[in-house]
């Protein structure tokens, strides 16, 4: 046996490694950390396509193809091709008949010529009158039959794709089979409306007439969808014509169906299809701007495809509330863009699905939210971004030598105190016991060799004899990050940087300093504690007021709950305090800031100083009033003032936090 190996083309590579959804989340994180919402970040990711998957198209690429295909279809041709061809064949038949009558000098010939001169201008009416005309010319009779065959094929093809080829040669048996098919189809639809239809009925129908339906539907629902979309396209074709063209073509259709004995069956079918699919655009006009005249079947096919592309474009845009990739019809994608586009769409769906199934995204009441797991991942991303801008020499640890429960032994010891969890220094403890006179002889068995009584020495230990071994440990800190959420942060474009900084600091403390107690406080007209899982989706407050007074109050409570922890307070703001908390719990706002607001805020700064908390301020604006205020804060507290750009805020905050922890 011989084997040939080559590139796999029948869909996605089955041996390709699974896509890492964490890369997709990181790609979303860039947008989320820049201020976007999770739903918009996911939508933008799906539009761009998967990062690192260059062979996969995103929604935007598919959308461009759809729009290009729509433009090509609109420029393909004109809708009146069948009318134009029917008029040409009619004029040809009449000309051939006149050529046959002209040499004949009889009155009958002149009477026939007068009848031809009196034919209506309307093509359908003229064909109706000539249907009973006795042609003198054999060529004219053949041309007229060609015209009728053309109309029969085009009209039926406009309703059933593929019947044009089946009726290419006039065959009474073929027409009778079409009549029987339509009768059986209507009976099956009536049976389904009564709830009596089964899949076996459909299978028997397709076994008998399957060659007339090249789409190969698998059930009645698919067949109804195929026929309804084509019937709606036929109605749109008529609606897109001029009133005269519409009247003329409608007359040709009705006349052709009457002559074929299909008018009643077609009426029943049309009513059933319209009732089942009223959502289709049945009478919406469409404009085709091409020069080539299209036959009815081709025109209906073009309009049917245009309708598909219009619906597909709406689904691919994903710009409506609650939009999901599951809304995109894979069959429409396959018809419009081919099999490879279906594979690309499935890859995008898999990412959307995996982000939810792996616990990164959560849909709650139709709203997309980040889970705590995703927030941790985004925090790590923000932290990596901060550390990438720091020099390696500035990333040092902040260990200190002190009694503790973790780390390497220092070689020294100290007396045990209640609550200590350090390892017992056995040697020093025993030495202390011996020195305190705690040696005792316990009675033992008689010595078999000497016959004398023996004993074992023991050491009695008291609480004061115990010593514990000292270890290196990391100090614990109570960290407060106060982030301005006021409207001015969004106006100055600094809010996204503040959110990234908060996430980075949260991730740093959680991963590198788990013993620290961190609290992030957002403040605008009021202050509130921000939970880690709400940081990524957090947005600024569209209110007036920068209530640093309230934020410092909350931070003070956090520090008081951890009296043995080293206090670290960091403030990120772009404006001086303009609000304070009154005794009744309401916020008082005033611009310019009132003396009461400044006094209350500075009094909380003094309390921070008494707690030994260094308060460092990162100001994101160069306002003179803000400079004056932060200089006063630095004078009272001894902290430092930074004026970083928004792009370097995270670097400054994290660096300062590490410096403070090392200094402690």
Q: Look at the helices and sheets and give the structural class.
A: alpha/beta
Total of helices: 24
Going across the biggest sheet, name each strand in turn: 10-9-8-11-14-15
Could you name the ranges where pLDDT drops below 50 across 5 or more consecutive residues? 391-407
Largest beta-sheet characterization: 6 strands, mixed
Quaternary structure type: single chain
Q: Whole-number radius of gyration?
A: 43 Å
> Strand-residue fraction?
5-15%
Textual characterization of the structure:
This is VWFA domain-containing protein. InterPro entries: VWF_A (IPR002035), vWFA_dom_sf (IPR036465). Residues 476-659 form the VWFA domain. With 664 residues, this protein is of the alpha/beta class. It has helices at 21-32, 38-48, 59-74, 81-101, 107-117, 123-130, 138-159, 163-166, 172-193, 199-209, 220-239, 243-260, 263-276, 296-317, 330-337, 339-357, 372-388, 426-435, 487-491, 495-512, 548-560, 595-610, 624-637, 649-663, and strands spanning 361-364, 367-370, 399-401, 409-415, 439-446, 453-459, 467-474, 477-484, 517-523, 527-530, 566-573, 579-581, 587-589, 614-619, 641-642. A 6-stranded mixed β-sheet has the order 10-9-8-11-14-15, with helices on both faces. The longest helix is centred in the N-terminal third of the chain and has 22 residues, at 138-159. Mean pLDDT is 77; it is low at 391-407.
């Amino acid at each position: 046996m011989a084997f040939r190996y080559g590139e796999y083309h029948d869909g996605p590579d089955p041996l390709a490694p699974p896509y890492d959804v964490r890369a997709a989340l990181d790609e979303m994180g860039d947008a989320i950390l820049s201020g976007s919402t999770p739903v918009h970040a996911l939508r933008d990711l799906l539009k761009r396509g998967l990062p690192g998957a260059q062979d996969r198209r995103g929604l935007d690429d598919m959308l461009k193809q759809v729009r290009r295909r729509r433009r090509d279809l609109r420029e393909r041709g004109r809708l009146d091709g069948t009318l134009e061809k029917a008029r040409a064949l009619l004029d040809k038949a009449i000309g051939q008949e006149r050529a046959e009558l002209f040499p004949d000098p009889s009155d009958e010939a002149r009477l026939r010529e007068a009848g031809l001169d009196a034919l209506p201008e309307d093509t359908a009416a003229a064909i109706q009158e000539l249907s009973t005309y006795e042609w003198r010319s054999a060529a004219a009779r053949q041309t007229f039959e060609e015209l009728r065959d053309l109309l029969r094929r085009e009209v039926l093809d406009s309703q059933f794709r593929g019947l044009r080829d089946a009726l290419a040669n006039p065959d009474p048996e073929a027409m009778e089979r079409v009549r029987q098919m339509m009768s059986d189809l209507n009976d099956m639809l009536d049976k389904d409306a009564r709830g009596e239809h089964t899949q076996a009925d459909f299978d028997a129908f397709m076994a008998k007439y399957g060659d007339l339906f090249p789409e190969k539907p698998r059930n009645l629902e698919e067949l109804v969808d195929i026929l309804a979309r084509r019937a709606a396209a036929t109605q749109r074709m008529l609606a897109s014509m001029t009133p005269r063209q519409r009247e003329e073509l409608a007359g040709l259709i009705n006349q052709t169906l009457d002559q074929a004995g299909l008018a009643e069956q077609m009426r029943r079918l049309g009513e059933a299809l319209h009732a089942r699919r009223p959502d289709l655009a049945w009478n919406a006009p469409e404009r085709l701007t091409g020069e080539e005249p299209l036959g009815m079947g081709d025109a209906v096919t073009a309009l049917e495809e245009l309708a598909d592309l219009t619906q597909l474009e709406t689904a691919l845009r994903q710009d409506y509330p609650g939009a999901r990739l599951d809304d995109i019809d894979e069959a429409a994608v396959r018809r419009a863009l081919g099999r490879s586009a279906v594979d690309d769409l499935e890859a995008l769906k898999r990412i959307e699905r995996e982000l939810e199934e792996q616990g990164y995204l959560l849909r709650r009441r139709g709203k997309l939210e980040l889970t705590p797991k995703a927030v941790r991942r985004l925090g790590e991303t923000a932290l990596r971004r901060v550390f990438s801008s720091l020099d390696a020499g500035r990333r040092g640890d902040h260990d200190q030598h002190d009694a503790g429960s973790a780390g390497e032994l220092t070689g020294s010891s100290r007396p045990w105190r209640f609550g200590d969890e350090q390892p017992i220094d056995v040697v020093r403890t025993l030495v202390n016991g011996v020195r305190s006179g705690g040696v005792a002889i316990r009675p033992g068995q008689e010595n078999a060799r000497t016959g004398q009584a023996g004993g074992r020495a023991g050491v009695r230990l008291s609480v004061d004899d115990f010593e514990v071994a000292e270890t290196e440990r990391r100090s614990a800190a109570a960290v407060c990050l106060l982030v301005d959420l006021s409207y001015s942060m969004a106006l100055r474009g600094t809010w996204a940087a503040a959110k990234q900084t908060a996430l980075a600091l949260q991730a740093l403390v959680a991963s590198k300093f788990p013993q620290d107690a961190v609290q992030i406080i957002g403040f605008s007209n009021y202050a509130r504690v921000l939970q880690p899982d709400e940081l990524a989706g957090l947005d600024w407050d569209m209110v007036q007021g920068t209530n640093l007074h309230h934020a410092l109050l909350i931070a003070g409570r956090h520090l008081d709950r951890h009296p043995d922890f080293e206090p670290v307070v960091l403030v990120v703001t772009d404006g001086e305090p303009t609000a304070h908390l009154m005794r009744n719990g309401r916020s008082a706002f005033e611009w310019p800031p009132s003396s009461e607001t400044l006094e209350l805020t500075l009094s909380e700064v003094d309390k921070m100083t008494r707690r030994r908390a260094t308060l460092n301020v990162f100001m994101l604006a160069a306002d003179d009033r803000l400079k004056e205020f932060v200089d006063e804060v630095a004078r009272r507290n001894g902290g430092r003032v930074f004026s970083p750009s928004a792009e370097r805020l995270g670097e400054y905050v994290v660096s300062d936090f590490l410096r403070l922890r090392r200094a402690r």
